[in-house]
Write a structure and sequence with these properties.
six-stranded mixed sheet; 7 helices; alpha/beta; about 15% strand; about 30% helix
Length: about 230
């Protein structure tokens, strides 16, 4: 199957304000985020990206716009990769939300967390994983098993996809760190996904390159998915 790059949107104005933006309209990138986007092309300069899928929110669109244009790729917008619908929590200060009884549930038992007037985190994982696997199959069929594609989404959404790929229960997804403009890499196979990289904010793209041979559905005993050497 193809190689998936999960890209969290670059830093937004809300990230620096302590506000839970959620799906609020008009939330774009701040100066730091714009700088992060400027370096994205260089980080992925050696990576042949065949398809770009993106959340419908402005901060994600701004993150991939220049990169997608440079590759001649039209981003595919998928609502299922949108930010969590935080309902009544949307637009509130995080410092206030920490006092809510639901906050501890979100931190310790997120699979049971349902935001008032919004959606549950289990729903988020279900829709996001379904979208990712559907697009991965599409890209593999259209561009072949060596293809690389990119999905730009939001922190909690990406963490839920990574938890699924790692075989980790959703209650453990808060242990995963996904920083703004970070890259995480997953390769799906017939039997299991392989998580190649998580929360990469540097410039080493070697793990993002498609394998020279089709990915095996079996893990290499005593080694990695890329080499039998230890």
């Amino acid at each position: 199957m193809a190689t998936l790059i999960l890209l969290r949107h670059a830093r937004s104005a809300a990230n620096g304000s302590g506000i839970l933006a959620g799906r609020s309209p008009g939330v774009g990138l701040d100066a730091t985020g714009i700088s992060q986007v400027a370096g994205l092309g260089a980080r992925l300069s050696e990576v042949p990206v065949s398809s770009v899928v993106v959340s419908p929110l402005q901060r994600c669109a701004e993150t991939v716009r220049e990169f997608a244009a440079s590759r001649g790729v039209e981003p595919v917008v998928d609502e299922r990769l949108s930010e969590v619908d935080y309902g009544e929590w949307t637009g509130r200060k995080v410092s206030e939300l920490t006092g809510e009884s639901l906050w501890s549930v979100v931190q310790q038992h997120p699979s049971a967390a349902v935001f008032p007037g919004g959606e549950g985190l289990a729903q988020v994982q279900s829709r996001a994983v379904a979208a990712i696997r559907e697009h991965d199959a599409r890209v593999s069929a259209e561009f072949g098993p060596h293809a690389v594609w990119l999905a730009c989404s939001h922190g909690d959404v990406i963490k839920s996809v990574l938890a699924d790929a790692l075989g980790v229960h959703l209650d453990g997804f808060q242990r995963i760190v996904v920083d703004p403009c970070s890259l995480s890499v997953v390769r799906y196979t017939e039997t299991r996904p392989f998580v190649v990289k998580v929360n990469d904010t540097g410039s080493d793209v070697s793990a993002l390159l498609p394998p020279k041979e089709p990915a095996s559905s079996d893990a290499v005993v005593g080694g990695s998915t890329g080499s039998s050497e230890s």
